[in-house]
Amino acid sequence: MIPPPLEDRLCSIKSVLEMEVDSRSSTKITKVFDLKAQYKALAAGCDITMNGNFQDPKVADWLLDPDAKVKRFDEMVKGQFTPQESDLLQGLRECFGEGSLSMTVQNAGSGQTRAALECVFTFHLMVKLSKLLEEQGLSTAFRNVEMPSLVALARLELNGAGFNPEECETQCQVMKDRLRMLEERAHKLAGHTFALNSTKAVDKVLYEEKKLEINEDPSTNSQPQERLSTSRKGVLEKLKTSHPLHPLPGVILKWKHISNLLNKVTPLQKKNVYNPRLNMDRIYSTCNLHTATGRVAFHDPNLQFIPKEFEIEMPTDTNNEDGPPAAGEETMSKRKVCMRHAFIPFKGGVILAADYSQLEVRIMAHLSKDSKLTQALNSGQDVFKAIASQWKGVAVEHVSDKLRQQAKQLYYGIIYGMGPKTLGEKLGVSKEEGKRRIETFKSSYTGIQRYRQTTVDQCKRNGYVQTMAERRRYLPDINGEDYYKLSQAERQAFNTTIQGSAADLVKKAMVLIDQRLQQEFPDTRRSHRHGESTAAAAGGLEFQIVNVLSADFCFLL
Prior knowledge:
It comes from Branchiostoma floridae. This protein has helices spanning 6-17, 35-46, 57-64, 73-80, 111-135, 139-159, 165-190, 199-209, 235-242, 248-271, 359-368, 371-378, 383-392, 401-415, 420-427, 431-444, 446-462, 483-520, 542-555, and strands at 29-31, 53-55, 161-163, 272-275, 280-283, 286-288, 297-299, 310-315, 332-337, 349-355, 464-466, 472-474, 525-529, 532-538. The chain is mainly alpha-helical. The chain folds into 4 domains: 6-136, no CATH class; 165-318 and 327-343, Taq DNA Polymerase, Chain T, domain 4 (Up-down Bundle); 359-504, DNA polymerase, domain 1; 505-555, no CATH class.
């Protein structure tokens, strides 16, 4: 029998998959393995937009064990089925990659055979996994948070972000020019050329040639510390502090900072793709939901690493008749660099961004019920200035930028479980001083410490922690005897409740906003960063969309 024409088959598929349903009340469920990839393939290749409620075994398997590695289709099937349950297992060979069996052409068998096997096993996989989700109280998070957010992220990936390569190159050139000047300055101070990106070369220049050492307190004659590799955090900062009259550590530190920023944005220039329909360049990033805490991670390229606006010191052109000034003697002025200017809307459009202010700090205040932290957030002032004010006992208006930064680093250091040594390196102080600052901070915010201990105790009893959406993370080492693994598990328990709950809230907001914008403004294009939702829309609609964004963001708080 001759199969019907491809166009007829696509029309039939389209009529089923695009059927309008009320996702809140409809019992229609489409079970799909690797939904995000299949959603994108149907939309981009067949002009089919899937509607309705979805279930993806990959997401269910991740929810059941978020720390496990991503399984291949055959691994998941063989982990849930016994050979006695289905003779079809004989036709299932080892798969390539982590995606769909049918869409991966390297897999054995014809496309029709692979698709048929995938359909049958996906259906039965979800029957088994749904029971496990129900038993562990994860069905609500799976149905109301994770699956809807996966669809929103699939659309986000399809939309991409408008990109101006010329603006990107302009911003990058400023950094490249400054790097070149700093490199020349470092070479002059060293007396010869050396590779600033080589830790071995930098160590040799600073320690062996310049005889620089790290002192705990440059104002005393304390014994110098053991030589630490300049690749470690805080070492160059300590060398700079220990030798304020020697500019070389500071020059290298500036070079490394700018070089690091440049390395984060360079991949953008290799990933822009021309979109003929929109007549513009766009960047299409890929998101990963398979993370231990549930935070969405982006890669290839990572748009979440795009730095905020910052300033670079550049020599001022003084038109000196005697020639250019010597390196290090130039009159410097500050030049702003903003890589986000390279991201643009479509022609005639505008970009709108909505952001939760200090979301994880607010989650911490909510969960810990710490009165001082709550007071700092409700004061209406800069939250980290307010925290620094409470911590040091000084008026908010007297909190310097440096003290604010120390309070911020200390706060996040405690949340992320940094020890005195690591925190000391980050703050540029000794291990003992790092320990003292941790203790004084903890004594100022006793509610945070109580909540941390309660979380660890509950995890020891249950073997897992839960986020606000009741997602679980199992931490078997929490009751182990290995001190290192036990300490890590305690940090993970505390951190997961904060970061994981923030991820839950952001996903809910993203889903709610995506649904509202799709209903009321179908031509908007959306993107996402940690705690932030971005939309590109036609000019003239921005005030209406702002009302939608602000209402839906606030609704979830």
